[in-house]
């Protein structure tokens, strides 16, 4: 009978304190997550069954080992004489994967001895690993009398290893990274693979490169790219080289390549190793497909993709008999997800969603609706993976549940697994735990940077937190029934603390004051949003200009004239910088709208003072690269400029215009009509419909 040190400690705690310890208190005592304890309790139950004993919970959720005294005595005697094994199966499988990754051929008996397991157990592990590696186009070959080896390209092997760590050791890595940055990590090797000093160097270089970027990055993507770089370094040192060129155009990964060139150059200087051109290209490709950007940092002008996402939302709404078409947060989140997702699919970069099966089980109708809509809209993709569909379902699930708000106490959700997952968790909390009123979402990084945790009544996290002096509850990202019970039990047992200094406090005047302040804050937020909308619409209409170009001019001349006139009207400064920004944007990808004679030139820049939307109608067509890579015969040049910093409502107004340009055939005709009055009327109609749908007003 095998038992781990933690399982042994759990049994001893329960025997010593019979009924006093809950799963949560044991987790706190042993300094691990509640989820880890729940997994261990299943193993504990099997162990004590061998002694004719049962694990039961009393009325206060306290754990008790129930059975005859002589059986409990036999269990205690066994605990004293047993030497625990400290390596769980998943860790042994990691060691197995690392072993077959590092050797071209490994004898079965040697592998079993290395892992300290039987050949039968090794065979079972190899079966599981072979199935998992198949998702990355890697074959695990076993030949009797020869041994075990992997067949597949090096780039796929590196990617498989990254995803294995992310899927099974995400929490441990986040914790180790935090301790590493604080200088309090004493391990010589993390998870049998990572050398702390080298991992710290990679993390520092990545942080330095990303801090110089304007976009904000999500925690999960940040950790993923650190792993990609570290594993690339390790594979280079072990003399495993990328043996296939990354076939991508320079435009597709120009930004990512520049970032990776900066990071690898710094690491070459620090650690004295050399990254090949193929290594850097491979890393740039992985960066392109990584879910790095948060929803708020996605460009507002991805016109064709934005329209396709709007169509998906409309289709899902119709299938479910509800309206999600006005949910800009849903649209924005899907846009953030879909751009890297489509890149991953087209480049065959597998992306695994560990919650896929649970999502399909919990939300079968929503999953089918999203799958139907996506496959109908993205017909050019032969197969849209269920893992990607499941990520999208998280966004839709968040939007659906958020319609049912009716809540009371303040909570903090700490969830570094991506914005879709964190919003889904927030929405599930709102639906299942009606006592909670306000919910804030913070990343691991944010909570370590002067966030006052004392202002929250309850702290929930999907990972073990490297913080002290703060009580928190660990939960599943989809909030299991057990999580719900734990949270409700916590709220029930802490009513006095939760209601302290709040509306249950004596004194009617203070109650009224608190309520009034709350209403005033809500009204203030609403007025700010209304102000943003009003100013955005007024700026677009007031700054709209239509230019009829009589003589043939180059595209650059037309843009330059438009920018110079905008400067003369004090709408922007430093036209040369803005002109260069427009050229840089054009170099990154086509601006011509497919199947039209329209091109949208756009940029966000600190030298732009107000939102600007203007049109120049050309006397003759001019060829420009389209958004789909094909040439577009441009006859209408649309210019959209915005300040670098935009509120959510300002982003929504710009997105509204850009997607409406191609929303219908009638809209395309209007914006390419060279009829100024008709275009102005169309803009007014777009804004009136937007205001009517958002504020329930009538003409």
Radius of gyration: 29 Å
Name the quaternary structure: single chain
Number of strands: 12
Structural domains: how many: 6
Instruction: Give the CATH topology of the largest domain.
Output: Mannitol-specific EII, Chain A
What shape does the CA trace take? globular
Structural class: alpha/beta
Q: Label the CATH architecture of the largest domain.
A: 3-Layer(aba) Sandwich
What ranges have pLDDT less than 50 throughout 5 or more consecutive residues?
294-301, 402-407, 503-521
Give a concise summary.
With about 700 residues, the protein is α/β, with parallel strands linked by helices. Helix content is about 55%, strand content about 10%.
Describe, in plain words, how this protein is organized in 3D.
The chain has helices at 5-17, 23-30, 34-49, 69-81, 89-102, 108-115, 119-133, 154-182, 196-211, 219-237, 254-271, 277-288, 303-320, 328-346, 356-362, 364-377, 386-401, 419-432, 444-447, 481-493, 495-499, 508-543, 555-568, 575-588, 648-660, 665-671, 676-695, and strands at 54-57, 63-66, 139-143, 147-151, 409-414, 436-442, 458-461, 473-474, 545-548, 598-604, 612-625, 631-642. It is of the alpha/beta class and 699 residues long. Strands 6-5-7-8 form a four-stranded parallel β-sheet. A hairpin with a 5-residue loop joins strand 1 and strand 2 (63-66). Helix 1 crosses helix 3 and helix 17 (386-401) packs across helix 18. The protein is globular. It starts with a helix and ends with a helix. Mean pLDDT is 82; it is low at 294-301, 402-407 and 503-521.
């Amino acid at each position: 009978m095998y038992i781990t040190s933690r399982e042994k400690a759990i049994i001893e705690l329960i025997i010593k304190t019979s009924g006093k310890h809950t799963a949560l208190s044991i987790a706190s005592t042993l300094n691990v997550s509640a989820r880890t304890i729940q997994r261990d309790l299943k193993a504990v139950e099997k162990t004590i069954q061998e002694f004719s004993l049962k694990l039961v919970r009393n009325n206060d959720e306290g754990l008790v080992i129930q059975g005859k005294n002589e059986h409990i005595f036999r269990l205690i005697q066994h605990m004293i004489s047993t030497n625990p094994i400290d390596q769980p199966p998943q860790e042994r499988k990691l060691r197995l994967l690392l072993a077959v990754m590092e050797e071209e051929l490994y004898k079965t008996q040697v592998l079993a001895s290395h892992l300290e397991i039987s050949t039968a157990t090794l065979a079972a592990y190899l079966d599981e690993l072979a199935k998992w590696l198949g998702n990355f186009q890697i074959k695990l070959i076993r030949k009797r009398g020869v041994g075990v080896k992997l067949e597949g390209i090096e780039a796929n092997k590196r990617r498989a290893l990254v995803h294995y760590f992310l899927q099974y050791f995400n929490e441990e890595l986040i914790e180790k990274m935090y301790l590493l940055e604080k200088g309090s990590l004493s391990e010589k090797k993390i998870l049998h693979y990572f050398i702390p000093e080298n991992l710290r160097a990679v993390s520092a270089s990545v942080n330095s490169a990303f801090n110089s970027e304007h976009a904000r990055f999500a925690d999960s993507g940040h950790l993923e790219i650190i792993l990609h770089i570290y594993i690339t370094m390790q594979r280079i040192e072990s003399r495993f080289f990328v043996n296939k060129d990354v076939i991508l155009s320079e435009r597709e990964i120009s930004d990512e390549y520049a970032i990776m060139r900066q990071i690898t150059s710094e690491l070459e200087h620090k650690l004295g190793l050399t990254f090949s051109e193929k290594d850097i290209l491979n890393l740039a490709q992985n960066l392109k497909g990584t879910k790095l950007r948060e929803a708020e940092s996605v460009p507002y002008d991805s016109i064709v993709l934005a329209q396709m996402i709007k169509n998906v939302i409309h289709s899902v709404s119709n299938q479910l008999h509800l309206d999600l078409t006005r949910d800009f947060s849903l649209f924005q989140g899907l846009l953030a997800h879909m751009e890297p997702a489509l890149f991953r699919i087209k480049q065959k970069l597998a992306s695994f969603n560990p919650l896929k099966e649970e999502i399909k089980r919990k939300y079968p109708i929503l999953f089918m609706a999203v799958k139907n809509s996506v496959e109908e809209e993205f017909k050019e993709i032969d197969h849209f993976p269920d893992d990607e569909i499941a990520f999208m379902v998280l966004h839709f699930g968040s939007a659906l549940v958020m319609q049912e708000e009716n809540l009371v106490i303040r909570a903090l959700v700490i969830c570094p697994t991506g914005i879709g997952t964190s919003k889904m968790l927030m929405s599930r909390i709102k639906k299942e735990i009606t006592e909670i009123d306000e919910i804030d979402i913070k990343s691991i990084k944010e909570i370590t940077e002067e966030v006052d945790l004392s202002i929250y009544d309850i702290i929930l996290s999907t990972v073990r937190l490297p913080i002290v002096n703060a009580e928190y509850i660990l939960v599943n990202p989809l909030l299991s029934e057990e999580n719900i019970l734990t949270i409700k039990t916590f709220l029930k047992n802490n009513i006095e603390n939760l209601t302290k200094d709040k509306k249950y406090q004596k004194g009617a005047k203070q109650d009224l004051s608190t309520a009034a302040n709350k209403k005033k804050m809500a009204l203030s937020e609403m007025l700010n949003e209304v102000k943003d909308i009003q100013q955005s619409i007024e700026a677009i209409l007031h700054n709209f200009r239509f230019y009829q170009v009589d003589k043939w001019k180059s595209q650059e001349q037309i843009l330059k004239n438009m920018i110079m006139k905008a400067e003369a009207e004090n709408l922007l400064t430093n036209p040369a910088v803005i002109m260069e920004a427009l050229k840089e944007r054009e170099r990154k990808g086509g601006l011509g709208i497919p199947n039209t004679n329209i091109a949208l030139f756009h940029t966000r820049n600190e030298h732009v003072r107000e939102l600007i939307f203007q049109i120049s109608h050309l006397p003759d067509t001019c060829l420009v690269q389209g958004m789909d890579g094909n040439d577009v015969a441009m006859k209408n040049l649309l210019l959209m400029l915005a300040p670098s910093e935009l509120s959510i409502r300002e982003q929504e107004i710009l997105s509204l215009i850009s997607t409406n340009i191609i929303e219908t055939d009638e809209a395309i005709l209007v914006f390419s009509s060279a009829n100024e009055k008709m275009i102005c009327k169309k803009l007014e109609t777009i804004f009136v419909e937007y205001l009517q749908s958002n504020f329930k007003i009538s003409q």
